[in-house]
Amino acid sequence: MAEAKNDFSKGSVARCIMSLAVPMTAAQLINVLYSVVDRMYIGHLPEASTLALTGIGLTFPIISIITAFTQLFGMGGTPLCSIARGEGNHERAETVMNNSFTLLLISGAALTAFFLLFKKPVLYLFGASDQTFPYADAYLTIYLVGTVFVMIGLGMNSFINSQGFGRMGMMTVLLGAIVNIVLDPVFIFLLNMGVRGAALATVISQFLSAAWVVRFLTGKKVIYHLKPSRMRLQRSLVGQISALGLSGFMMAVTNSAVQIVCNATLQQFGGDLYVGVMTVINSIREVLTMPVNGLTNGAQPVMGYNYGARLYGRVRSAIRFSSIVCIVYTLIAWIILMMAPEFFIHIFNSDPELIADGVPALNLYFFGFFMMSLQFAGQSTFVALGKSKHAVFFSLLRKAIIVVPLTLLLPHLFGLGVNGVFLAEPISNFVGGSACFLTMLKTVWPMLRDEEQEHSLTARRAD
To answer: What is the 3-state secondary structure (H, E, C) of 360-423?
Structure first.
């Protein structure tokens, strides 16, 4: 019954995508509140708010690495599961999901142990100073306790969405976010725990989200269930899951690398204040890109299902719809951001000096923001159709090949200093975004047309 209800081969393609994308976008926006609400409260502490906010910002690369593994094994398994479901191979689809669950558990435990052991040298490597390290250390130590909960909550929630239960996926993160919003002021201000309180509220929230996911995926409503008998790792599936998740993994890891390089370079050219500015900018970027993430992630199961079912016209419609909506949204978001930069910065910090230096930095960083949507649209198409090599290449191109070298080079040229760090992002959006999207049009579009013709010819011969 659930299978028939969530059949993406019927009805309007746009409606199928939006039925997943709207709750997924809401879920991801809510999920961002886990960390964003922490920063909003910490950034307005009565004392040392800027140093505390900067300290939390130094943990971003580590959190990005943890998120990268949820992409590798969660979002890597989701399109594989969707394609198998479209082909009608339900046993394989369920086994993929269970193997992803096992991989998430193993990697979560390993990441917890590694970062607890090496957190001090890692944080100093990432741009911490003697003034900001105590705040970063206090937050990270508690946050790492909940790593496995993050892996399950984020990684496995994608399997709820891919089976067509978008609203339930939204409820997963809504539960945790509401708890986090309620507990943050209690722990931070009422119990006077500061950054430790923010981290503790986050861990409790993540635990509840993870428990909700496991409970739903072992219940009666889902199409595919978590079963110990299917959790034993299969080498071939591990390879395929990792290959499809590698693009999202590399995107998150290279994003972490960019944050590390940016923080270290900004510490060198501008000090703690500019590391704080970058923390605020990253917070704004997370919120603004969530609708794009939600839409492209919502489109992936629809594309993968119809590709597996050989309904190539619906795949093209899904690509067209998601691309247009992404471009229009990011263009509007950019215009609004340029009209009121002080408003967005003030959400996270009220320091007049940070706001004064943050406005020109924000204007540089978000210039041509709409070009970023081309990267998301192109890359999500590659992932949905199993084109892992293309997706990985363009993940590396924009961040590792363009942003990191430019971040290191530009501050030394033409007296740019800190402005060079903020200029690297828009340059990568224009170059990397265009290259990814145009390559997708040049490769995927003809491939779909050729496979459609071949399938039609085979069907006529069979008749």
So the answer is: HHHHHHCCCHHHHHHHHHHHHHHHHCCCHHHHHHHHHHHHHHHHHHHHHHHHHCCCCCHHHHHH
